[in-house]
Structures are given as structure tokens and as C-alpha cells.
């Protein structure tokens, strides 16, 4: 039972680390996709409050902070998985 929990935590940590990498190092690509989705979405979706959030000048920094948080959460999960095995 403990091994399956540890493996699940490691898998989630790897996915979080990948998402963090995308947010940190591929921020421009993520912004491009968000802008493209905004341009191609219907007009009523574009008028939803908060939908223009991606055009704020601080949004790339927000994405990078999210990437750091994802890496920290992944690190915590790996640490917890190691503690499960050690105990």
C-alpha cells in the first residue's frame, strides 16, 4: 500500500515539475496560446469579466511565480514520498 501511494505521489510530482517548467521557461509560448484562444473565442466569451486578464503587463511574472509554486509543491510531494518509504 505504501509503495503505491509513493508511486502516485512521484507521478504527480513529475507532472507538476513539467507544468512548472512550462510556466517558467515557455512563458512566451503560453502567452501566445492564450492570446490566440482569446482572439478565436466568441465575442460573448471575450466580454466575460476577467477574460482580458492575459493582457495585463504583469501576467508573465504571474505565470512564472505559478511555475515556482508548482516546483515547490512537487518538491514537497517528493519529500513526503521519501518519508513514506523511510518510515
Give a quick summary of the entry.
This protein has 87 residues and is mainly α. The chain has helices at residues 2-25, 27-40, 43-46, 59-86. The protein has one domain.
Number of helices, counting only DSSP H or I runs of 4 residues or more:
4
- Amino- and carboxy-terminal Cα gap: 13 Å
| Helix/strand order, N-terminal first | HHHH
* Beta-strand fraction estimate: under 5%
Mean pLDDT: 92
State the assembly state of the protein chains.
single chain
Main sheet: strands, sense, barrel:
none
Structural category: mainly alpha
Helix content: over 70%
Radius of gyration using CA atoms only: 17 Å
Could you list the spans in which at least 5 consecutive residues all have pLDDT below 50?
A: none
Give structural notes.
Helix content is 80%, strand content 0%. It has helices spanning 2-25, 27-40, 43-46, 59-86. The mean pLDDT is 92.
Features:
single chain, 87 residues, mainly alpha, 4 helices, 80% helix, 0% strand, elongated
What topology emerges from the helices and strands here?
Blueprint: H1 2-25, H2 27-40, H3 43-46, H4 59-86
Helix pairs in contact: 1-4
Amino acid at each position: 500500500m505504501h509503495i503505491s501511494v509513493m508511486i502516485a505521489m512521484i507521478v504527480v510530482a513529475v507532472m507538476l515539475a513539467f507544468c512548472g517548467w512550462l510556466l517558467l521557461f515557455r512563458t512566451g509560448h503560453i502567452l501566445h496560446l492564450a492570446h490566440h484562444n482569446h482572439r478565436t473565442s466568441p465575442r460573448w466569451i471575450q466580454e466575460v469579466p476577467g477574460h482580458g486578464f492575459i493582457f495585463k503587463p504583469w501576467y508573465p511574472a504571474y505565470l512564472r511565480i505559478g511555475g515556482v509554486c508548482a516546483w515547490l509543491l512537487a518538491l514537497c510531494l517528493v519529500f513526503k514520498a521519501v518519508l513514506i518509504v523511510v518510515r
